[in-house]
Amino acid sequence: MNFCRLCLLTACLSFLVGTASAAILFVDPDYSNNSRNVYHTLPEAHTAANIGDTVYVKGNANVYQDGDNPLTLTKRLVWIGPGYFLTNSSGTQADTNVAKIYQMLIYPEASGTVIEGFVIETYFFNTSSTIWIIEANNVTFRRCKFIMSVSRSLETGVGGIVEQCYFDGSIPSAYIFAYGSGTIIRNNILQSISVPPDGNAAVYNNIIVGSSCLLSNGNIFNNVIMAPVTIATAANLYNNVSSENIGSANNNISNLSRVSLIEGGTHPENQYRLNPTSVANSAGTDGTACGAFGGANPYVNSGMPPIPSISSYSSYSHATPTSGLSITIQATSHP
Fold first, then answer.
1. What Rg do the C-alpha atoms of the chain give, in angstroms?
2. 143 near 298, Cβ under 8 Å?
3. Are 145 and 165 in contact (CB under 8 A)?
């Protein structure tokens, strides 16, 4: 049954791959058939994949990789999970299990890797961060949820991109460190961020709501900042709005109330949408909206990958020789 769903998903995605030479592989802990590129585990799929391949990972009630068994990446691949908060919004996935991992090691050979639609949770071990990017450049984390249950951080490398991600608020000190030149941090719901003096990052269209915002370098614009902020002279801030004092130069707006900035409420994502009357709706560059939901690359609820998903699935419990097995599916497209 699970493989049937994977086949249906493949049919939905076939128009995306066209005649490209890159292969599509699947990870399904409930089914495997190597001749059909379906594997039980992430390492098995990694071993079988060639550079440039895409690996789709089925949601699972259990964690795929724990802290004592990290996922080691030595190839440039695209990894796509099902998203997160799958019961909080309509039209997500029929299977609401997420693809969760605790740790991954990303080596230089995996430069250019894309990781999308996963839940990445901290695990207590003797290292400084949950995700190790070991000299790997141009690694993209897109539409992932980071759960910082202990004080750990995501550290970017040269050319790293973190976009449309959600950082859980249970630990307000959970950091994203923007290291390396050419780093882009955009359209995220962040708790805390640190751009060090040698970071030279572009940080824009985020909402920062945790305990610390340390900006020592880079171009910082179109953000909604609701965390205590420290700004060095090398940082280029413009067109940001904040509940803190960030000054008024370069079209920055300071000392706004939280309620005037965002909608609030209990929804983990929608609470960070802009209040319809907020000045942030037009305070960005060229009169655009600030915050995670603004700009050309807005945050997407539930981290849904930009491909069709099977949002509804049903079938009869048995088949007959004459009528076969009746299956009904509903597919939903996502931006």
1. 21
2. no
3. yes
For residue 258, give the H/E element and its range. Answer: helix 258-261
- Tell me how far apart the alpha carbons of residues 167 and 147 are, in angstroms, rounded to a whole number: 6
State how far the Cα of 55 lies from the Cα of 104, in Å rounded to an integer: 15
pLDDT, tens digit, 9 for 90 and up, residues 71-104: 899 999 999 999 999 998 877 887 899 999 987 8
The Cα–Cα gap between 280 and 262 comes to 9
Partners of 324 in the β-ladder: 320
pLDDT digits (tens, 9 = 90+) for 185-220: 999 999 888 888 877 889 999 999 988 888 989 999
d(CA 75, CA 249) in angstroms, rounded, equals 45
Helices (H) then strands (E): counts for the chain: 3, 29
Which one, of 16, 5, 96, lies nearest residue 329 by Cα?
5
Whether 100 and 66 have beta carbons less than 8 Å apart is answered as no
Q: Give kind and range of the element (H or E) at residue 9.
A: helix 2-17
What CA–CA distances, in Å, run from 5 to 63, 220, 238? 21, 43, 47
Type of residue found at 200: N
Q: Tokens 């724990």, residue?
A: 66
How many angstroms separate the CA atoms of 271 and 269, rounded?
5
Helical ranges in 40-161 per DSSP H: 42-48
